[in-house]
Queue: 4 jobs
Job 1
Amino acid sequence: MRFHFTLFTLLCLFCLLAAPREAQAQDPRFSQFYAAPTELNPAMIGVYEGKFRIVANYRELYSSILGSHPFRTIAASFDMRQRVQQDDYFGFGFSVLRDEAGLSQFHRTKANLGASFMKQLGGSRYATYDQYLIAGAQLGFGQHGLNWQRLWFSEQFNASGGFIDASAPSGESFDKQTTGLYLDFNAGLLWYVLFDDHLSLYAGGALHHLNNPNVSFIEGSGDDLNTRWTAHAGGEIPFTRELSLLPAVAVMGQSTYFSTALGGNFRYTNRDWKEVAIRAGAWVHLSNELESGVAMDAVVATAILEMERWNFGISYDITTSLLASANNSRGAFEFSFIYTHPAQWRNGVKCPNFY
């Protein structure tokens, strides 16, 4: 029994360590997608109630298996909004992301400048509801890197001895440790209607890597980064003056990869002048698993603390796929931080509670 478990664990490790050769075709994701707005959709630049916003996200995946070389994703962004006429606004933002995948030190680094335009469709600052359509875009640069010396290949496996001979030739021809610096372009749309302070509905979609940049590590070869599409929706449903539910869903696809996260957070607030609120919820993550089709691979538990301008979130992914036998269901933990600086009343705009 122990032999079979060890063999299964080694197979899982092999799959994880071999993933970087295909990983460049799949973007990283956050379980708290709603707390990484500019990574989810460029149209979410400037969509918040405040003068400017600072966001930071950290995700660590499979440290229970990979030890000191887990999958890590770090992102940060800054955005602000400026009125242009009546109740229409321009948003501006800057975002960076660094993603590392496993022992091979495969990494992606990108930086984007973004802008959005918020067009009011109905309501006003004095009306009982507000409705906006927002278009956003990002333009930036990115680069991928990989440490080939940390990888082994089939040519280096000694079948007779049952071991890996790192000194044997790999049979691969790698020219460089990093790709060239590539240009990247993203665009998206978002619509929302706010009926009351805690009654809202929103829906949006985005396309990332519209220009399909070349991310090949081999000189003179082409390996285009596939366009990633995203569709997301959600809102807030009040039960009492203090308690509401924030359901949401985000669906993403990139080449053959498909991912869906859906669930909700309950929000309880003291309804005081200096508002403090807590949120707790559960989410499920679905993805396509080779020939098995779409299946649930994780359940996510979340907790969020709101303190006026500050928002602190933590979540944990509980693995439910076959990998649970190897990692004892210990998937990923994630942190989010959001600071929103209050706006003067004349520059304020009503927005839904996304996070």
Job 2
Amino acid sequence: MLRRTAKNMRPNVDNKKIEQLMQALGKEARGSGCIYFTGGASALLIGWRSSTVDVDIRLDPEPPGIFEAIAKLKQELNINIELASPQDFLPPLPGWRDRSVFISKQGKISFYHYDFTAQALSKLSRGFERDINDVQAMYEQRLFSLTKLGDCFEAIAPELIRFPSIDPDMLRTNVENFIELNEGKQEES
């Protein structure tokens, strides 16, 4: 018999829940820091998805008291919060902080979208249909450029050996195919 976990039983998160989470984290944290949203949370806030299962975040620098706040808010808001970002799956891209997009400041916490170029590479490394659709949506919203995507891949390619779950040749092919497909769309316009 399969046991259902609390994660499975929680409802999907919508844009309103993300806003509530940001406000509550800003009130609960005991000091300053930055929280970077990735994946579905970014998709919700920008508007190419209407819901997500998890709120994936990166803390950098980590706000004091944030883990106590997260534990409390996961229960109060009935949401899944995961510590996950592209640099958990790929080498950190040079300049990722500079390309991260500011969302708002709540209390002493600054909220950002994690670098969309890094998010795109991370999703292309997985290659699932939903991931590819997300990358296409990010590109169509002009959240990253094809040139930057290719340049950033080349910058991290020598470090991919440190990530055994990644097939560097497959990722290169996915990146090149995405760039080629979208360059072709630009020429048709």
Job 3
Amino acid sequence: MLITWRYRLRNGLMEKFDPRARWIFSFAFLFAITMFWDARFLLLFFIISVVWYFLGRVSWHDSRRGWYLVTFMMFMMIAVNTIITGGGAGGVVPPGGHQVWPQGTTIPLINWHFHFGLTYERLWFAICQFLRIGGISAIFLIIPYTMDPRVYGVTFRGLGLPDRFAYSMELAFRYVPTLARDFGTTFDAQRARGYELERVKGGIVKQIIRIAPLIVPVTMNSILTGEDVTNAMDLRCFGTRPRTWLYKLTFHWQDYALVAFSIFLLVGGIVTKYAFHIGNFWVPDFWLRLADK
């Protein structure tokens, strides 16, 4: 049986919007924010995303695992790929700049010559990355916790997608929580038989062999569940003709207002970026003055 994310009715303002309008706003926000590297614009988008996130009234207890994953990804992209290696800043931050630490710093005690070369410009770019990634994450992370899973399919169908693709998207949203449920069930069953994951030691090959009692049942059950869903859809002749949906979605005034705001956000971003050529990477003077102290 397929399950869903931890959705429950919270009676928040966000739930008054049509799911289609919410998806239009989410993608318009995504395309608009990715056109800018100017922290002033990114801060505006970040504030919009924070306000939108809190409209969902999602508690930390419900969404904490999602934020753990986002935090790990942000650490890898910002701390490792931008601050340490500088690879993420390529093509955006101009070469050279004001050094925080000079090239070829020697670390005391271990006498290790470390080619770091961190600049103030790259640090500011890391802040811009945080605003951009954090804003996008807040917009999309809240979707599975605040959108009724029963309307996933009809929502994508209402956006003009074919029935097959709309239902595939609905199954995709249910796949991850279903996989987590199966993993938890399998783990509890194996522990009841004396299996202890905490004692997995040895080399990489030995560790893989040791966790096989977890991976193999979960993988096989996932494959069998997919086959069951496929067979059930084939038996019902899914895809041979346009299908009807149990739930019907209707736009209201607040949905039109949200769509209008989404269009304004996207079109305004395009005009600002490509007509006025505003929004490229910019470092404020007060930040650069820190290099002179």
Job 4
Amino acid sequence: MISGSIVALVTPMHPDGAVDWEALQRLVSWHVAEGTGAIVAVGTTGESATLDVDEHLAVIKAVISTAAGRIPVVAGTGANSTREAIELTRAAADAGADACLLVTPYYNKPTQEGLFLHHKALSEAVAIPQILYNVPGRTGVDMSNATVARLAGLPNIVGIKDATGNLGRGRELIEMVGDRMAVYSGDDATAHELILMGAKGNISVTANVVPGQMARICAAALKGDAESARRLNTPLEALHRDLFIESNPIPVKWALHEMGLIGNGIRLPLTMLSESCREPVRLALRLAGAL
């Protein structure tokens, strides 16, 4: 089972928006060295919305190739078209991904029955392990815990990334499905608390900039060491907050650029971090020891 700190990896780009393949390889190797538990390639943080299909699959293949079996690679293959999600998931499986992360279909706002049938179709079409991804603040659709419980009965649906940030709801979800699938936090600010309740890890934006620290926080929480997990998390609280001062992945890409790890490329309609937001992010990086 994939566990611990799982980075939702950025896709580094040159100033003209072209993918920076060398920087991508460096980031993957850095995460391996820092103890990251797994890498999510081309999720929301990886700018999946603006990569074309060929680029999307090329980034997944590059991450798999560079990771070279040292840590698992989870491919982001969700879409708001069930047919498209099946095609992407099948291609990721063929490329050698260890699992796929499947966001709820966005914008068209399916019913709970539609969500169930969408993921059921994916489960039946592609045998790869699949992790559900519920992020209602981003997609405009909220998959209920009851629907997750229905999906937990399908053999290759192995987990869910719960990005609601609602610890009470997360606890209920763990109680409902924790014996059948892994629950992962998708909210950095509350992740260690959800892990202490029984979640298996954190699919993290913050891990992009402080991978070693996030790995240690998750490891402590997985051991049930609440005191250490909370102590290690305290210097990162501003970072958890300010990496969302503008829409993700704008702040985290700027932070990595500020750290000298990637260039300053990002694709429209996203833009580089506003001048007024840079000092708060810079201060948060310093508090976390990343600068």
